[in-house]
Design a protein that fits this description.
By secondary structure, the chain is α/β, with parallel strands linked by helices. It is 33% helix and 20% strand.
Length: 591
């Protein structure tokens, strides 16, 4: 599979040194072209079609930044280049002028599984509620009874034509069209009679033709720059400073991270670099100068006593920066740093720091794997141990009322994957139809429905609910990997649409048979607040650990399945919120 990238040179880059373009911009600890290639992959030829007149050395510069062979092709002669390829070879087309906020790797995964013979276009449909219409129904007391949200569809013209992320087409189809953008490619393929389909991607687009958007993307990628394995060639100086090889930085230089300095950079005495800032390879920063919240393209020069603030700079005139030889003659081993006096994430940049979680990423992955093993062992043990009881319960259900033995309802699991949640049936066969008539009598707010004396519940069903025996079949879901013993309550798609940040959090882990909300929610379950549910689910996801699961399991046993509540401080000791503050705190965070 080949890769074709349309490169651009926005006005804010200027002429620079004649070779600067979007693909050469440093993002995190690598260049933009390296970021695209490593994310999209493909393993075939890599072509770059610049939408401008490239200067001498452009192709060589791209190849050095990409670390692989890159062939620059004239857009006008692209047809000839593609004609030399196998007509059936698939080509991924990316426009460097836009970048999905979710990253190119997720985008490539959508088009990677080929079962469609025509062209595929990935369309960014947005990642939030700003492109949705919503209707909220409340009762006389002001409690939320129903939320209807209609998300914008990919067939809307201003989405399908202007928010394209990536396209995939065969080389044979591409030889019959001429294009300089993804929207033009989409139109030309349609005019040529090529079959096409749109694939929605829940993400926003960053327009790299705008300087502020480049700075936003650079800041967005900054935290990952300190976590990824390909940064081993960088030295870590201070808490949030990465420095590449062959750099010379005077000992008087003050650096306040997060800052990433690429290879072969020179920074003269008394200069200041304030993050989030990325210094591209070969840059020269003069003495007494200041670079703050900026991105310096490769070979950029900052004059002595100059200030570069909140800019994407591609270079300048070298009035005061001395040659490399003169700088290295100073009596220092290079890479000297003034001490960092404070945490830059909190005090300088306003940028969100490392993701709040109880465990480092690698420990969390290990504990998640251990948790899965525990779930399998526990599910098998419970199903075998309770097999005689399950047979008795099944027989009574059949005798007590008409209808199926099990109630299976579609719920959203990890990543939003839908699965049938299995329970013993505790209601009448027509319970779902009757629920619409009973919505006004629901005794809790939010999208869930609950009544203390629900007329739909059968006689034996009331006993099963009171004893929690109706949930034992959910261990089949645990065994199949749909659920876990501990986690957020499994909910259907309709309920998860009410609060998008909550949905993202709770769908990042498997739902559970029991969880933090079940054991810590208000004692008066009929007055349980929907924000309380959001609050406890979010706390669980942020603070996940096996020890937290052990404490939740113990609380579930001691409270007989959550018949009464335990204080949150018993389970999450370091959490400072009191029960009385749950509503306001959760509303402030996620509402």
């Amino acid at each position: 599979m080949a890769l074709l990238i349309i490169d651009r040179r926005p006005e804010y880059l200027g002429e620079g040194y004649g070779t600067t373009s979007l693909l050469m911009l440093p993002l995190g600890s690598r260049s933009y072209i390296d970021y695209i290639i490593s994310s999209v992959g493909g393993g075939g030829d890599i072509w770059v079609a610049p939408a401008f007149e490239p200067s001498e050395g452009y192709e060589k510069s791209l190849a050095s930044l990409a670390g692989t062979t890159v062939k620059v092709v004239d857009p006008a002669g692209l047809t000839d280049v593609l004609g030399e390829s196998d007509p059936e070879e698939m080509v991924i087309v990316v426009d460097a002028g836009t970048c999905p906020t979710c990253g190119f790797s997720k985008t490539a995964a959508i088009v990677g599984d080929r079962g469609y013979l025509g062209a595929t276009h990935v369309v960014a449909v947005g990642d939030g509620t700003d492109r949705a219409r919503e209707r909220i129904v409340r009762d006389a007391r002001g409690n939320v009874r129903r939320v209807k949200r209609l998300f914008q569809g990919t067939s809307w013209p201003h989405v399908a034509n202007k928010r394209l992320v990536m396209s995939l087409a065969s080389a044979g189809d591409l030889t019959h069209v001429a294009f300089d953008s993804l929207s033009e490619l989409r139109r030309q393929l349609g005019d040529s009679g090529v079959l096409q389909q749109d694939q929605p991607l829940p993400t926003d687009l960053v327009d790299l033709n705008e300087q502020d958007d480049v700075l936003e993307l650079a800041e967005h990628l900054m935290p990952s720059a300190f976590r990824r394995a390909h940064h081993r060639r960088y030295s870590k100086k201070g808490r949030h400073v990465l420095v590449g090889s062959d750099c010379w930085i005077d000992g008087s230089v003050r650096i306040v991270g997060p800052v990433v300095i690429h290879d072969d950079v020179i920074v003269e005495e008394n200069a200041s670099i304030i993050g989030p800032t990325i210094i591209g390879p070969g840059c020269r920063i003069g003495r007494n100068s200041v670079v703050a919240q900026s991105v310096l393209a490769r070979d950029a020069m900052v004059d002595c006593d100059d200030t570069v603030r909140h800019q994407v700079s591609s270079g300048g005139q070298n009035h005061g920066v001395q040659p490399h030889a003169a700088l290295t003659s100073h009596g220092t081993n290079g890479n000297g740093f003034a001490p960092l006096d404070f945490d830059p994430y909190d005090s300088i940049t306003g940028m969100e720091g490392p993701k709040l979680e109880a465990l480092p990423g690698y420990q969390k992955k290990v504990q998640m794997r251990i948790k899965r093993v525990i779930d399998i062992v526990a599910a098998i043990s419970v199903l075998i141990l309770f097999a005689p009881l399950l047979l008795i319960v099944a027989a009574i259900i059949k005798i007590d009322s008409r209808g199926p033995l099990f109630f299976m309802h579609n719920r959203e699991g990890k990543g939003g994957k839908v699965f049938p949640c299995i329970k013993f049936r505790t209601m009448r066969k027509d319970a779902h139809a009757l629920q619409k008539e009973l919505y006004a009598q629901s005794e809790v707010d939010g999208p869930q429905f609950k009544m203390d004396h629900d007329p739909r519940v059968t006689r034996f069903g009331a006993f099963l609910r009171a004893s929690n025996l109706d949930e034992i079949p959910q261990f089949i879901n645990v065994l199949l990997g749909h659920m876990s013993m501990i986690g957020p309550r499994p909910s259907p798609f309709r309920e998860n649409q009410v609060c998008v940040p909550w949905r993202r959090a709770r769908l990042s882990v498997n739902p559970g048979i029991t969880g933090l909300w079940q054991v810590c929610r208000s004692n008066d379950r009929s007055e349980g607040d929907f924000h309380e549910w959001i609050f406890y689910d979010t706390i669980y996801v942020k603070r996940f650990s096996l020890w937290l699961d052990v404490k939740i399991f113990a609380a579930t046993v001691l409270t007989l399945g959550g018949r009464w509540s335990v204080p949150l401080s018993w389970i999450v000791r370091s959490h400072h919120h009191t029960r009385d503050g749950v509503q306001s705190q959760s509303t402030a965070q996620l509402g």
